[in-house]
Amino acid sequence: MPAFITLEEAKQQLNIEESDTLDDTYIAALIPAASEVIERECNRKIYLTQEELDADSEAPEYAMVLNETLKLACKLTVGHWFNNREATSELTIKKVPLSYDYLINLYRIPLA
């Protein structure tokens, strides 16, 4: 699974200085997981470049090239997981309108 964002992009989203490497291993593990979730949520194969898509003779019909919208969804996911490291919380978390779900729904292909 290709990573949709770089470690540097994730750290920028998290407001972590590039020189602060304390959480780099953890953040680096979140990136491919977030990328996979986005691909699965969209029900599409997502390629990093048009060249990769063109070179794959077996690309699915609804394949697409990664864009800035889905990169933002990846950053939001990494940020959420970084700040909420447990499966449960005592806090009430509210969805932010026009964030992750909105971005993903722009590209989601309904399953038959």
Task: Characterize the structure shown.
There is one protein chain. Strand 1, helix 3 (50-55) and strand 2 form a beta-alpha-beta unit. Strands 1-2 form a two-stranded parallel ribbon. With 112 residues, the protein is mostly helical. The protein contains 5 helices and 2 strands. The protein is globular. It has one domain (7-105): Orthogonal Bundle (Hypothetical protein yqbg), CATH 1.10.3230.30. This is Head-tail connector protein.
The number of distinct structural domains comes to 1
How would you describe the shape?
Answer: globular
Task: Please give the number of β-strands.
Answer: 2
CATH superfamily: Phage gp6-like head-tail connector protein
Catalogue the unreliable spans: none
Q: Percent helix among the residues? A: 40-55%
The topology string of helices and strands comes to: HHEHEHH
Q: Distance between termini?
A: 24 Å
- Mean pLDDT, all residues: 93
Q: Quick one: CATH class?
A: Mainly Alpha
Q: In what range is the share of β-strand residues?
A: under 5%
CATH architectural name: Orthogonal Bundle
Rg is: 15 Å
Query: Which structural class matches the secondary elements?
Result: mainly alpha
Largest sheet: 2 strands, parallel
- The total of helices stands at 5
**CATH fold call:** Hypothetical protein yqbg
Spatial order of the strands forming the largest sheet: 1-2
